[in-house]
Please model this.
Amino acid sequence: MLNTAHLSLEQAPPISIPFRFFLTAPLFGAAAGVVLIWAGDAAMVSRWSPIVLALTHLITLGFLTMVMCGAMMQMLPVLAGSPVPGAGPVGTLSHLALSLGTGALVHAFIQGSAGWMKLAVLLLGVGFGIFAVAVGLALARVKLSSPTVTGMRWALVSLVITVVLGALVSVGLFGVVSLNNLAAYTDLHLGWGLLGWMGILLIGVSYQVVPMFQVTPEYPKLMQERLTPSLLFGLVGWFLFETGVIRGYWSPLVPGCWMLLVTAGYPWFAGTTLRIQRLRKRQVSDVTLRFWRVGLIGILSGYLVWLIGRVFPDAATAPRYPLLLGILLFLGGVFPLVNGMLYKIVPFLSWFHLQNRQLALGAFHVKLPHMKGFIADREAKLQFHLYLAALFLALAALFWPVFFTRPAGAFLVLTNLMLGYNLLRAVMRYRGTKALLNPLDSH
Amino acid sequence: MTTITETMTSDHRHCDGLFAETETLIADGDWENGAQGFAEFRKTTEHHFAVEEDVFFPDFEQRTGQTMGPTRMMRMEHEQMRQLFSELAEALENRDKDGYLGFSETLMILMQQHNMKEEQVLYRMMDQVYGEEINDLLNQAGSF
Model:
């Protein structure tokens, strides 16, 4: 028999759990901008420079993973009917460890400090450990699986692999353990983080939220059923082939050709999403949709640039080539998808919690704000334009670092501050309305 | 064999279509046709609710002995949507475009996630419980 708890929304975690993840993210995003302003054109030299490593982790851990973890804890009970056990303490601890760990990691990179690196590995290890166990339990308990749940499962597996590889690389980097082929392991860490954790999670979640937020047709059944398991299988194969290269069993061509097959899944997904969005019934203008278009095009362009690097290996050896890929895929790809999603999740969550409360209290004399009352279109659009400026300036900085790196950093700070302001205002509006609903309960 | 899942899912899509058309009209400032579209959307959706609340849910509750389970949650969400219908009607009356679009955005997400729960869980449960007998129930709903 099916589990009736599937339909229950009463098990959602306290709203403060996802909110604190969401509100912290823009702070790290803004910090990335500050680092860019501080470093100037030195940030555009090589992917191996400590500044670039710090910047990358501010964005990937501090912004993207921060939001993704918070959203996952929120979505599991709603989309899969399976609450995260101990959501309160788990959320509090993992949020704290992730925030402090990211800070320590960035400090370790910039200062070249082995001590801070050890602290960062410890904090991030504990934070992700708690998160993975609790969310893993919730995912294991899902009674009626769906393509979204499958995606979440494989994304979580990828997250654990990414963290373990990251810890290995970081201790190797600071000579704590000797690790030959540090570059190859770093690529594996990066690949599992980007293609596994972020890629698979976004694909899985899109199956639910794209039709829901934009009233588009469903994703093709074949894609929903096969894509995320194939991607995980592909990444496992890549891992084994790469290890074979490291041990000298075969040539790098083997994992190279394999990845040509595996990565094709991402443009397939991005292209399909653009196509079903074009077929959407709802025609009114929508900031989230604009963010998504940029993100999907970012992914497609990143893929194209990657492909060119495979066909013309000389181009790929240019020091700025990996930076271009990084900007396109992280700042131009995943970032806007996550940012755009926040503009649906936060207002809806606020309204939804308030309305449930209103029904429970029977306090119908209070008029609840609608979604745009939490975050106004005008402010969201302004943040979108600031983001676009940051993205294009960052791309320009690759070619004219002296002129554009600092302006790119400045706009990255601005867009993140604006995002933080928009989210904070939504939270204040939520609190204010909640107090009106039940004046006796000020909590 | 027809199933509840198929029948009701296509009804959901029909309501979505009316909803989206109305929203576009309002966004374009076409209040006359927008008001007509809204009335049509509201009527169609209320009929869908009535079929569920007066035919499907009571029968299902009786058969499974569950009155506090998923059907209760669905009834509550219908109430939430009805509240938004009133807000939309008020915004329409006042020709308040921002208000209408804000509430329609809210309703849209509520409606979509409600539909998903029905389509992916509740209707599938009902199809499982009824099996071949489903046609009787569908006939009853058809004459409703």
Remarks:
- The CA atoms of residues 26 and 416 of chain A lie 5 Å apart.
